[in-house]
């Protein structure tokens, strides 16, 4: 092996969303040349693909952003508690403009293969056009929820109207005044229905599993609120870094629901019912670990949900019963008046679990075991192959010639979600077995770790870093152990994407580190302090 071959770039990264921008920032700081490739025609990642009506963040705007520059935090103004996809994308363009990032970004470039070259220690990256580029470090910033799932429903290719996945919204689609079907009742559908019900002719939601739905309680940004945020950004940044979910939330002050009198539990639940995921983390510390506490929370949410649905039979279908499955075994959607839409006479719920499963899609609509429904448009809001999907969608081949997809066939394995044994000089932003947390926070923590690792290699003259298999085994076992102590480990029974249990013919698996994002960030920092003991560094003969 020799290190004489000069790569086209020090770093090639895939994905021009938050991860791509964070990588450009942190890797430029350590003197690397970096090219970010993306198949999309614009930057934004998730927020360039998910542009369906109603698409907006479920995290509050002022900390769902990159925090590397105090100046940028002060300069940008958010218009609301939860920004739309467009506003988030505009924010990313603002960052790219301000920080002169565009020269590092190459759009409309789909990567179709990445191969580690043992002899040179370089990665060869092949694009759809057949071009090959080489780099010393190959990084995935492809996003943890980006690879869409297209269900295998008989007759799908016979439908005469538009039929598409929610994350591939056709730009010129005319949906107003049309009869619309939505297959799936997850976070995406919960956002689409209220945004479309007024103008669609009708909407039918084909629901398999119902969800615990948390209220968003959207509100406009006011000058006073913005001032308060901007005066306190240091504290907000610190809160995100130190929170179990990477969000600028307060904690539950050690309260346990199971040790609190019922009337006090009710009072606290009610007092904190102010919108966002805050409610889960600011009320009690045992909601996600103790079934009894989880039942109390589920019961409260179910009651709140039922109050909004006029027809009790419909409420039975829309609202999970306590005991069906734990709150957070599936990621709860964030609601902006979804449930009320079913009180209209042009929004319908079709129970495809127990009452009338889908049989086929026809030229003109959807046939269930009981009915044939006619539609103009069918939207597949059927979710994503989270964490591993994008990394398995094209061959990424490591030192032994095995692809990531082959390696992860039975179970996922990584070191802190950021690197993988047998894949030298490959890094992943928010890969499998990283936490599920406020994504910009996790992305930046990963980018910092990667930049520091690369900086060490460059300063000390290393050509290759090899993630240690024994450390990978340890991390994988540690993540599985923590996972088994939470109620999220029951997600396989309700097709949760958090366990990959929404993918047909694939074994559910542990995909997420549930030990707290703050503790995970501590692990990353400790690794830096100790000189990256998870990796073996090598110099090639020159
Ligand atoms: P999802 O939550 O995984 O929901 C997919 C839906 O499709 C489920 O109702 C599922 O039913 C149904 N489904 C899947 N395959 C089906 C089939 N073959 N036949 C019938 N129904 C089928 O997907 P999503 O709504 O796109 O959301 C995914 C994640 O993306 C969210 O949890 C969230 O993390 C993220 N997201 C975030 C935002 C935001 O932050 N603003 C917005 C949207 C999405 P089962 O439940 O029975 O499997």
Automatic annotation (TrEMBL):
One of its GO terms (molecular function) is N,N-dimethylaniline monooxygenase activity. The keyword Membrane does not apply. Signal peptide: none annotated. Transmembrane segments: none annotated. SUPFAM superfamilies: FAD/NAD(P)-binding domain. Keywords: FAD, Flavoprotein, Monooxygenase, NADP, Oxidoreductase. Pfam families: FMO-like. InterPro entries: FAD-binding_Monooxygenases, FAD/NAD-bd_sf, Flavin_mOase-like. Gene3D superfamilies: FAD/NAD(P)-binding domain. This is Steroid monooxygenase.
């Amino acid at each position: 092996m020799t290190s004489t071959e000069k790569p086209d770039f020090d770093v090639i990264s895939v994905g021009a969303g938050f991860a791509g921008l964070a990588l450009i920032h942190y890797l430029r700081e350590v003197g690397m040349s970096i090219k970010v490739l993306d198949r999309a025609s614009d930057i934004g990642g998730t927020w360039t693909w998910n542009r369906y009506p109603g698409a907006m963040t479920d995290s509050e705007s002022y900390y769902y952003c990159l925090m590397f520059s105090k100046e940028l935090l002060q300069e940008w103004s958010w218009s609301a508690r939860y920004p739309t996809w467009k506003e988030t994308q505009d924010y990313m363009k603002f960052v790219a403009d301000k920080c002169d990032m565009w020269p590092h970004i190459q759009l409309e470039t789909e990567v179709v293969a990445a191969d580690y070259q043992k002899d040179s220690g370089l990665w060869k990256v092949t694009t759809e056009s057949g071009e090959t580029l080489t780099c010393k470090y190959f990084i995935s910033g492809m996003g943890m929820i980006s690879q869409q799932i297209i269900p295998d429903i008989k007759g799908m290719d016979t439908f005469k109207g538009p039929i598409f996945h929610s994350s591939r919204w056709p730009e010129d689609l005319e949906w107003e005044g049309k009869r619309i079907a939505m297959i799936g009742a997850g976070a995406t559908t919960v956002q689409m229905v209220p945004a479309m019900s007024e103008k669609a002719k009708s909407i039918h939601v084909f629901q398999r599993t119902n969800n615990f739905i948390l209220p968003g309680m959207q509100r406009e940004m006011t000058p006073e609120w913005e001032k308060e945020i901007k005066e306190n950004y240091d504290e907000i940044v610190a809160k995100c870094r130190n929170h179990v979910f990477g969000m600028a939330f307060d904690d539950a002050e050690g309260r346990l629901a199971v040790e609190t009198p019922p009337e006090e539990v009710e009072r606290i639940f009610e007092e904190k019912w102010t919108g966002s995921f805050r409610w889960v983390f600011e009320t009690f510390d045992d909601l996600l670990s103790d079934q009894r506490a989880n039942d109390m929370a589920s019961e409260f949410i179910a009651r709140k949900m039922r109050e909004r649905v006029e027809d009790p039979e419909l409420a039975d279908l829309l609202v999970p019963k306590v005991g069906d499955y734990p709150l957070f075994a599936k990621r709860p959607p964030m609601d902006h008046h979804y449930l009320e839409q079913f009180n209209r006479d042009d929004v319908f719920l079709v129970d495809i679990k127990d009452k009338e499963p889908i049989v086929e899609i026809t030229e003109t609509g959807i046939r269930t075991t009981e009915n044939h429904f006619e539609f103009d448009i069918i939207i597949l809001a059927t979710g994503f192959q989270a964490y591993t999907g994008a990394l398995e969608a094209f061959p990424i081949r490591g030192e032994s010639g095995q692809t990531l997809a082959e390696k992860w066939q039975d179970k996922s394995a990584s070191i802190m979600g950021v690197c993988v044994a047998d894949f030298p000089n490959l890094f992943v932003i928010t890969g499998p077995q990283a936490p599920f947390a406020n994504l910009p926070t996790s992305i930046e923590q990963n980018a910092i770790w990667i930049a520091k690792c690369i900086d060490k290699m460059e300063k000390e003259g290393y050509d290759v870093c090899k993630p240690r298999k024994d450390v990978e085994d340890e991390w994988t076992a540690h993540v599985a152990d923590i996972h088994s102590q939470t109620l999220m480990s029951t997600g396989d029974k309700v097709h949760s994407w958090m366990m990959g249990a929404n993918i047909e013919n694939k074994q559910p698996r542990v995909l997420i580190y549930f030990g707290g994002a703050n503790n995970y960030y501590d692990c990353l920092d400790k690794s830096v302090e100790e000189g990256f003991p998870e990796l073996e560094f090598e110099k090639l003969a020159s």
